[in-house]
Write a structure and sequence with these properties.
The complex is a heterodimer.
Chain A: H1 2-13, H2 19-31, H3 33-54, H4 56-73, H5 89-109, H6 133-143, H7 147-160, H8 165-177, H9 181-192, H10 199-212, H11 216-223, H12 233-242
Chain B: H1 9-17, H2 20-40, H3 45-66, H4 74-92, H5 109-132, H6 137-149, H7 152-159, H8 163-182, H9 185-192
Helix pairs in contact in B: 1-2, 1-3, 2-3, 2-4, 3-4, 4-5, 6-7, 6-8, 7-8
The chains are: A mainly alpha, B mainly alpha.
């Protein structure tokens, strides 16, 4: 019953209703409030999702531009590298100690930021003699921080090798870099509860995912589950200390 | 819709064209005010950068999908959007020590109208997106393919099903999604807006 209604919506939006079908459809839109409401929702959904998916790539490109402009115009503090003449070393020392004080102050008061902890290991999946083109494209993109392209290649790879945890993990990292938090989280969650060699690494990234979203409490909670024996333990403790 | 674009509509166009030269003016002219507002209200420069970027991306989508026309000065419109987004963010972080909201009385009604239009647009898109994620994996995949590829013949081929089946499935999945949206609390609230 209901299904027919949506098929009709779709046909109407595609201009495929003609003659009597069209007249009766339009009549119903006017007389049946529930029918009209559902049609309006259907239509808005169609337009919204279609625009969203169609422009996914453009959106990423725009975000890249905005990122660059943002770091150029907003975080100018790091950029200024004035050359200070050598003989002025006294001033330099004073400046340095002030900088140290400020640094200490900021460190003590500010929350840690994602970028301080997001040094990813290089992706290294191309075996010698292996001529898998997608793999080398993925490596190249990921290692040069082109995460949009990396995600594309890694998605292809993860469909080809659904059981390869490393590929999944790096797909997750790419998603994280692109701020697709919930998709990233789903991947890290799955790996961290699995039994591969990447479980604690995935837990670590799960925490970073929260950190990037500034969900500090969640971040702490996850960090505390990283065991002492793990490679990530030291970083986890460092981050915990700053939170 | 016979709205006359304001001269600042160039910024909206720049978003659509990803024109970094014009967009750099946005950062040059308007970002300082926002950064200092966020800083004054328990945030840092990183937060401000995120707020600015998300606001611009929202405006981009609104312009793409709804042909949004800016009819008031960009400055007032953008500043208010960013401010409100930051206050929302603070609420989400559970920070109730929100300080002064500078008086919005100085904002003209027509500006406020445009701000609210953009916010409504965003709330609706977010609702749609979150309900989309509640669909089963099959439906998500099919709809994504449908909206990306447009031609149902090609979608059917890609998924290895017949054209008729793909069409039928599409309206079924969209029907489910319509129901999810219709029955959500957020939708009731949006309607009352």
């Amino acid at each position: 019953m209901e299904e027919l209604r949506y098929i009709e919506f779709d046909n109407y939006l595609n201009n495929e209703l003609v003659g009597e079908e069209l007249t009766s459809f339009e009549k119903r839109l006017q007389s049946d409030a529930d029918f009209k409401q559902e049609f309006e929702i259907y239509k808005s959904l169609n337009s919204s999702l279609s625009s969203k998916f169609e422009n996914e790539k453009d959106e990423q490109a725009l975000r890249q531009t905005l990122n660059d402009l943002g770091s150029k115009y907003i975080k100018t503090t790091k950029k200024e590298t004035k050359v200070i003449p050598l003989f002025n070393y006294k001033k330099l020392l004073v400046a340095a100690s002030i900088a140290l004080l400020i640094g200490f102050f900021v460190f003590k008061n500010g929350n840690p930021v994602y970028s301080d902890f997001s040094n990813h290991n290089n992706l290294d999946i191309v075996a010698r003699g292996d001529s898998n083109n997608t793999k080398s494209k993925a490596e190249k993109a990921f290692n040069s921080k082109n995460y949009i392209e990396a995600l594309k290649q890694l998605t292809t790879l993860s469909n080809e090798h659904p059981n390869d945890v490393e590929i999944q993990l790096y797909k997750g990292i790419s998603l994280l870099e692109l701020n697709k938090y919930s998709e990233a989280d789903a991947i890290f969650e799955k790996i961290s509860t699995g039994s591969s060699a990447f479980t604690t690494k995935a837990t670590w990234y799960k925490a970073l995912n929260y950190l990037k979203q500034k969900k500090f409490e969640d971040c702490k909670r996850v960090l505390k589950t990283i065991p002492e024996a793990a490679e990530e333990y030291e970083m986890a403790q460092k981050l915990l200390g700053e939170l | 819709m016979s709205q006359k674009p304001h001269a600042d509509h160039i910024y909206i166009e720049a978003l659509l064209k990803n024109d970094s030269r014009v967009l750099s003016k946005v950062y040059e002219k308007y970002s300082h005010k926002i950064v200092s507002y966020v800083r004054k209200n328990s945030g840092n420069a990183d937060d401000a950068q995120d707020i600015i970027q998300e606001t611009l991306v929202t405006i981009y989508h609104q312009a793409k999908e709804k042909n949004f026309i800016l009819t008031c000065p960009f400055d007032a419109y953008f500043y208010l959007l960013c401010k409100r987004r930051w206050l929302n963010e603070l609420k989400k972080r559970g920070n109730n020590r929100v300080t002064i909201l500078e008086d919005e009385a100085s904002i003209k009604d027509e500006h406020l109208e445009q701000v609210e239009e953009t916010e409504l647009f965003e709330q609706q898109s977010q609702l749609f997106e979150s309900k989309f994620k509640e669909l089963g994996a099959k439906c998500q995949e099919l709809l994504k393919a449908t909206f990306k590829i447009k031609k149902m013949e090609e979608v059917a081929e890609l998924l290895g099903v017949t054209y008729g089946y793909a069409r039928k499935k599409k309206s079924q999945c969209m029907g489910q999604l319509t129901q999810l949206v219709k029955n959500s609390n957020e939708f009731q609230q949006l309607k009352d807006y």
